[in-house]
Amino acid sequence: MPKMVFVERDGTRREVDAPNGLSVLEIAHKHGIDIEGACEGSLACSTCHVIVEPGWFGKLVKPTEDEEDMLDLAFDLQETSRLGCQLIMTDALDGLVVKLPSGTRNAGG
């Protein structure tokens, strides 16, 4: 089973099982990682914002225009920011590392 790493706000790295077909948001919730996901993956908020480690960013499917619009509302936006609800785990992403932003802003959700 693929694994991924969440870097929590305090810098703690947590490696977790990341089943194929689940979103980063769903994986976070499964393992008690502190990502809200207020709209439950319906692209109506930015509370599942994660910062992807630069080495992984280019391996991801490009964000949709809707995701980019929601990211514009995210707190602590970075060049490698994505919404966790839109990142679906595959074998190709085994080892993916994402960092939680310093905070969230529930804009639009």
UniProtKB/TrEMBL annotation:
<keyword id="KW-0479">Metal-binding</keyword>
<feature type="domain" description="2Fe-2S ferredoxin-type">
    <location>
        <begin position="2"/>
        <end position="104"/>
    </location>
</feature>
<dbReference type="InterPro" id="IPR018298">
    <property type="entry name" value="Adrenodoxin_Fe-S_BS"/>
</dbReference>
<keyword id="KW-0411">Iron-sulfur</keyword>
<protein>
    <submittedName>
        <fullName>2Fe-2S iron-sulfur cluster binding domain-containing protein</fullName>
    </submittedName>
</protein>
<dbReference type="InterPro" id="IPR012675">
    <property type="entry name" value="Beta-grasp_dom_sf"/>
</dbReference>
<dbReference type="Pfam" id="PF00111">
    <property type="entry name" value="Fer2"/>
</dbReference>
<keyword id="KW-0408">Iron</keyword>
<dbReference type="InterPro" id="IPR001055">
    <property type="entry name" value="Adrenodoxin-like"/>
</dbReference>
<dbReference type="InterPro" id="IPR001041">
    <property type="entry name" value="2Fe-2S_ferredoxin-type"/>
</dbReference>
<dbReference type="InterPro" id="IPR036010">
    <property type="entry name" value="2Fe-2S_ferredoxin-like_sf"/>
</dbReference>
<comment type="similarity">
    <text>Belongs to the adrenodoxin/putidaredoxin family.</text>
</comment>
<keyword id="KW-0001">2Fe-2S</keyword>
